[in-house]
Amino acid sequence: MSGVVEGRTGPWEMVIGLEIHAQVTSKAKLFSGAATAFGAEPNTQVSLVDAAMPGMLPVINGYCVEQAVRTGLALGAEIKLFSVFDRKNYFYPDLPAGYQISQFSQPVVGHGTVVIDLKDGSTREIGITRLHMEMDAGKSVHDLRADATHVDLNRSGVALMEIVSEPDIRSPEEAGAYVRKLRSILRYVGTCDGNMEEGSLRCDVNISMRRPGEAYGTRAEIKNVNSVRYMMKAIEYEAERQVEILEDGGSVALETRLFDARTSTTRAMRSKEEAHDYRYFPDPDLLPLELDAAWVESLRAGLPELPDAKKARFIEQFGLSPYDAGVLVAEQDSAAFFEAVAAGHDGKLAANWVTGDLFGALKKAGLGIGQSPVSVDRLGGLIERIQDNTISGRIAKEVFEIMFESGRDADTVIAEKGLKQVTDVGAIEAVVDQVIADNPDKTAEFRGGKDKLMGWFVGQVMKASKVKANPQMANQVLAKKLKG
Ligand code: ADP
Ligand code: MG
């Protein structure tokens, strides 16, 4: 679905802003030394601070602050050397303190930018409003018993980065591209593992509709969407729902909604007008966070090459299309694999093999690039045999499949299966002579001016040679002999 909905009364444009909660990759929590491993037994990773026992004091985890600053730097954002932790007050059974420690009026990271990569190879800039640090709450478990709710505090106090975008996104595709790009950047800098199934990356979607070019309308917010696909479906449904209301002369309610994955619909959860008054105030247990400018600069200097820079370099250095370069740089492992294969080989050929046959086979086998049965050296070896004309590109696909299944190298497979391309002129001439002798009618037609038959003759020669004849040579020999 594009970002424009054609209504009865004319077109409506989507306006979307995303709030993403990214869990900081840290062994300890934001204000305590308790562990954060996913999937632990309930309530086994809870310190007295996380359980909000009276008199306990939070102590800021410097490592988590460092990761938030590195993330801000990777988003090209302004780093605030002075920021404040606030208490966000509300009552909930899985929030034992009765408040969440967050950053409200003075977050650690200000304005930044994410460049999104679209299918047609073009890019767009999406503004980042802010990034702030906060603690996660615990989890209420409603499905263990019919008559009671359980509380698991393992998540309580886990460090989150909330990354808020400007309302710059204009379609479900752009929203998907934004989440994928942000996830890619977070994984490059190693500040969040981006695992949406485990809840390390959660997404709140804000969406409103407007007449193209006019002022923004009232938005609805869809909470905690946990996959890119669901997010795109939620946007599609919500856009249609809002257009129906607007076209009937109604107004969209400012409210929080939930996405139901079974029906691909959204439903109202609570109105924003009734939303809690959080009574934010600076947490008296924590000093303001003051950062040293030189330390921030040292973190900037230590960042890895980021996806956009790598993409530009791949386009420049290997002559790749923006689309292929974008696919290759999405994950650091894939980019490194490609670069190692491309070293000493034709870059475009290497890119085609990595994004095509290799990614396809890995996906089918459910493997990551780190578990590829065809190593960098072996894929390079296969490409060498194409480049030196030992095998054709078509036979190479067959060789690759056997390599992937058996773990053997290209030369072994080519030798064992007798797939070496025939480049001996004498041998090709013999096949061509035979094909001409077997097909006197077609030969006469060709000689009578039916040039189009050339393709058919090449096909016969390839078939007779079990696809092993060098195609260019088969063409040349045929052209010479047919002209007779
Ligand atoms: P809240 O805390 O109530 O969610 P914020 O001011 O933090 O409010 O805004 C949250 C998100 O809503 C941001 O990502 C912003 O881009 C988006 N947003 C703001 N106004 C609109 C609008 N009219 N339509 C769509 N998204 C919007
Ligand atoms: Mg919000």
Provide a concise account of the structure shown.
With 484 residues, the chain is an alpha+beta fold. It contains 15 helices and 16 strands.
Layout of helices and strands:
Blueprint: E1 4-7, E2 10-23, H1 62-74, E3 82-83, E4 86-89, E5 99-102, E6 112-117, E7 123-135, E8 139-145, E9 148-152, E10 159-165, H2 172-189, E11 201-210, E12 220-225, H3 228-247, E13 255-260, E14 265-271, E15 281-282, E16 289-290, H4 293-301, H5 307-318, H6 322-329, H7 332-342, H8 347-365, H9 376-387, H10 393-406, H11 410-417, H12 425-438, H13 440-447, H14 453-464, H15 471-483
Parallel strand pairs: 12-13
Antiparallel strand pairs: 1-2, 2-10, 2-11, 3-16, 4-5, 4-15, 6-7, 7-10, 8-9, 11-12, 13-14
Helix pairs in contact: 2-3, 5-6, 6-8, 7-8, 7-9, 9-10, 12-14, 12-15, 14-15
Adenosine-5'-diphosphate (ADP) is lined by residues 15-19, 164-167, 206-208, 216, 219, 221.
Number of helices: 15
Small molecules held by this entry:
adenosine-5'-diphosphate, magnesium ion
- The low-confidence parts are none
Quote the distance from N terminus to C terminus: 58 Å
Fraction of helical residues: 25-40%
Q: Mean pLDDT score, rounded?
A: 94
Estimated radius of gyration = 30 Å
Described by its quaternary structure, the protein is single chain
How many extended strands? 16
What class, by secondary structure content?
A: alpha+beta
Portion in strands = 15-25%
Shape descriptor reads: elongated
Largest sheet: 9 strands, mixed
Work out the count of structural domains. 3
